[in-house]
Specification:
The structure is a single chain. The longest helix is centred in the N-terminal third of the chain and has 22 residues, at about 10-30. It contains eight helices and twelve strands. It has a seven-stranded mixed beta sheet with strand order 4-3-2-5-6-12-9, with helices on both faces. The chain has a three-stranded antiparallel beta sheet with strand order 1-7-8. A two-stranded antiparallel sheet has the order 10-11. Helix content is about 30%, strand content about 25%. The site of S-adenosylmethionine has 22 residues, from α1 and α3. It comes from Curtobacterium aurantiacum.
Length: about 280
């Protein structure tokens, strides 16, 4: 269930979202393919897909030896996958439950990762040091009301010459009706500063239910995302749009590979499912 155009104070929205994300952790611990990470060659599906888009922009084409800050790291499956590429990782999230889970995972795998509990909109002040790469992927900025403030954190965390990478659900996808029999819009594409409020006991992975069902999200068109990064002084290097997604946005989506879903073939070229941006700091 959702209601739109909700005028909500950020402190209240953030606390509400955090309670919901804390509740999702035990469900996701059972649903994410965590055991597979015991194999040192294994990478999460998200990181496996992101690496070929990211590494061409890195010195020597590799994460090896680089300092990487992973924003909104959740339970750490992507974070440890990046660490396995030889990078020194700092994982950032506002959910203490997610960070406890992520930290436990890294310890079990023998990986040394720094974890920082903070609102990502305050990340620059909360995180020590600066970074060759700032990475964030899949299910991130829809939780944030203010992309200018977000982009300022990203730029502030990067060293000169550093690389920012994001892949996420495409804002045009988020405007679609997930329950419809065809591609029709249901939600607004353009922002007006107000939130979309959701009440949902489920989550995108696993069958469990959460006690704190309410969340707040904000729509961000592609232009707003790009302009926020440009406004923070970053240089846009690459913008791509994809046809697959690492979660099942709609029951109509079909599985196209491990951890990968897409619209049925006749709809696949009609609308993007993801965007990927690479930007650098001069
Ligand atoms: C869908 S997960 C993203 C990660 C990753 N793709 C994954 O599935 O592991 C979203 C994460 O964003 C975090 N989050 C949401 N709002 C945040 C905020 N304002 N500051 C920091 N973290 C936030 C949540 O706690 C959650 O761990």
């Amino acid at each position: 269930m959702s209601s739109d155009h909700v005028d909500v104070d950020w402190d209240h929205a953030r606390a509400t979202n955090r309670a919901n994300w804390d509740d999702r952790v035990p469900i996701h611990e059972g649903a994410y393919a965590i055991d597979a990470l015991a194999d040192t060659d294994h990478r999460s599906d998200v990181v496996r897909e992101d690496l070929p888009a990211l590494t061409p922009w890195l010195p020597n084409g590799s994460l090896d030896g680089l300092d990487v800050c992973h924003l909104q790291c959740h339970i750490g499956t992507d974070t440890v996958s990046l660490a396995r590429e030889g990078a020194r990782l700092t994982g950032v999230d506002f959910s203490p439950a997610a960070l406890a889970s992520a930290s436990g995972l890294a310890s079990r795998l023998g990986l040394d990762v720094a974890w920082v509990e903070t609102d990502v909109l305050d990340a620059r002040a909360a995180v020590t040091g600066d970074f060759d790469v700032v990475y964030t992927s899949i299910g991130t900025i829809c939780w944030l009301p203010d992309l200018d403030r977000w982009a300022a954190q990203v730029a502030g965390l990067l060293r000169p010459g550093g690389v920012f990478f994001i892949r996420d659900g495409h804002p045009a996808l988020y405007a679609l009706d997930e329950d419809a029999d065809e591609l029709v819009t249901r939600y607004r594409y353009f922002p007006d500063g107000t939130a979309q409020q959701w009440d949902d006991a489920g989550t995108y992975a696993g069958d469990g239910t959460v006690a704190n069902t309410r969340t707040f999200e904000w729509p961000h068109p592609l232009s707003e995302i790009v302009n926020a990064l440009l406004g923070a002084g970053l240089r846009l290097r690459r913008l791509d749009e994809g046809r697959t997604l690492p979660w099942r946005f709609s029951p109509r989506m079909v599985e196209t590979g491990t951890g990968s879903w897409a619209w049925p073939e006749h709809d696949r070229d009609r609308i993007p499912t993801t965007y990927t941006i690479v930007a650098t700091r001069d």
